[in-house]
Amino acid sequence: MPTSELMPIGVFARRCGLTASALRFYADSGLLPPAETDPSSGYRYYHTGQLERADLLRRLRGIAMPLATVERVLGAAPDEAARLVDEHAARIAGEAADTLRRAAALRTALGAAVPGTPIAALKGPVLADAVEQVLTATAHEPGLPVLAGLRLEAGPEGVSLIATDRYRLSVRTLTPTEPADRAWAGTLHGDDLRAALGEVRRSTLVRLEATPHGVRLRMAGRSDRLCRQLPGEFPDHRPVLASLGGPTTRATVAKGPFLRALEDHPGERLALRVADGGVSVLPADGTGSGVRLPAAVTGEELCVRFGLTTLHPAVSTALGPDVMLDLRGPDRPVTLRSADGGDLTTLAMPVPPLPDS
C-alpha cells in the first residue's frame, strides 16, 4: 500500500470527524480496523479509502444506532442497509412518541394540584378544526421557538388563534360556548396541541384554564391536557392586518380544482395570473399556458409569484368549496378566505420575480 495514502490516527480523525479514542474503540470492536499498525510502536495508520466507511459509521452512531445494527448496515447491500436505517428510525420515533405521551400525562398529573383560572369554554370539534388549520402556519426555527407555537388570545370578542412562519399568517376567531371569564394571551406549544387534538375533537365541550406555565384543557370523561406556554415575544399580527389596505384585485375560485392545479405544478415556485374570468397557475416566470381556472374576478389584471409550500397550505385550509383571494400587488400579501363565510383568514407572502422574468 503506498505510504502517501496512509495517515496517522490523528489526521484520519480530523478528516472523518471521529475522535482518536472513538477510532480506537471501533478498531477494537472490529467495525473499523486500521489499515496498518506499526509492530514496534503499535501506532495505527488509516487509508484514505476508509474515509467513506468512517463517515457512514459516524452518521449511523449519530442517530443512536446500536453497534450490532451498525455492523449489519456496514456489511449490507444498499437496499438492505436502507431498510435497517428505516427500521431503526421507526423504533426511535415510536419510543420518542411514547416518551412524549408519558411526559404529557406526568406533566398533567404534576400540575393537577395547581389551580387554574377559567378562560373560556369551546366546542371540542370546532376547537380541534381551528387548531389544525392555524397550526399549518407554524415553523420550527432555531432561536425563535414562538414560531412553532399557536398564539391564543381570549377576550370579550372571542378566542383568537394565531400562527405565523413569517411567510404565512393564519388567524381564526372562535365564539365561546360560554363567554370568556377573563382576558388572557399566550403562545402555546404546537406539539402539545397536536398531541391533544384527538381527545379535543371527541369532546363535546373543552374548558380552557390558565395555569402559571400554560393552558389546561379540561374535557368531561377524559384526562386533562396541559399545553405548555412558550417563552419569547410573539410577532404582533395586528399592525400587519391593519396596514394591508383594500385589495386592487379580487378573485373567487373553486377550492378543489385550485388545489389540484397547485399539486400538479412541477416547480417550487409558481406565478398566479388573475385576469378577467380566470385564475391561471403558471411557471414561475409567468409564461406558458399553465392551468387556467374559471373565477369571478374584479379589479385590475395582476400576476403574483409564490413559493408552492406557502400557497398550497393556505389554500388547503380555507373553509368551504370556494376560496376568495384579495390581491394588492406583486409584492404585497395576499389574503385568502372562505368565499361563503367562515372566520379563518390567511395571509400569504409572495416571492420576488425570477431574474429577467
For the report, how would you describe the main beta sheet? 12 strands, antiparallel
CATH homology-level superfamily of the largest domain: DNA Polymerase III, subunit A, domain 2
What is the residue-mean pLDDT, rounded to a whole number? 90
Radius of gyration: 27 Å
Number of helical regions: 10
Query: CATH class of the largest domain, anyone?
Result: Alpha Beta
Low-confidence stretches: none
User: What's the domain count?
Assistant: 3
**SSE sequence, one letter per element:** EHHEEHHHEHEEEEHEEEHEHEEEEHEEE
Q: How many E strands?
A: 19
Structural class: alpha+beta
CATH topology name of the largest domain? DNA Polymerase III, Chain A, domain 2
State the share of residues found in helices, binned by percent.
25-40%
Question: What oligomeric assembly is this protein in?
Answer: single chain
Strand content bin? 25-35%
The end-to-end span amounts to: 56 Å
CATH architecture of the largest domain: Roll
Note the overall shape. globular
* Widest sheet, order of strands: 8-5-6-7-19-18-17-12-15-14-13-16
Structural description of this entry:
By secondary structure, this protein is an alpha+beta fold. It has three domains: 3-75, Multidrug-efflux Transporter Regulator, Chain: A, Domain 2 (Orthogonal Bundle), CATH 1.10.1660.10; 116-238, DNA Polymerase III, subunit A, domain 2 (DNA Polymerase III, Chain A, domain 2); 244-348, Roll (DNA Polymerase III, Chain A, domain 2), CATH 3.10.150. The protein is 33% helix and 31% strand. The strands form three sheets. Strands 8-5-6-7-19-18-17-12-15-14-13-16 form a twelve-stranded antiparallel β-sheet. The protein has a four-stranded antiparallel β-sheet with strand order 4-9-10-11. The protein has a three-stranded antiparallel β-sheet with strand order 1-3-2. The protein is globular and about 85 Å long. The model has no long low-confidence stretch (mean pLDDT 90).
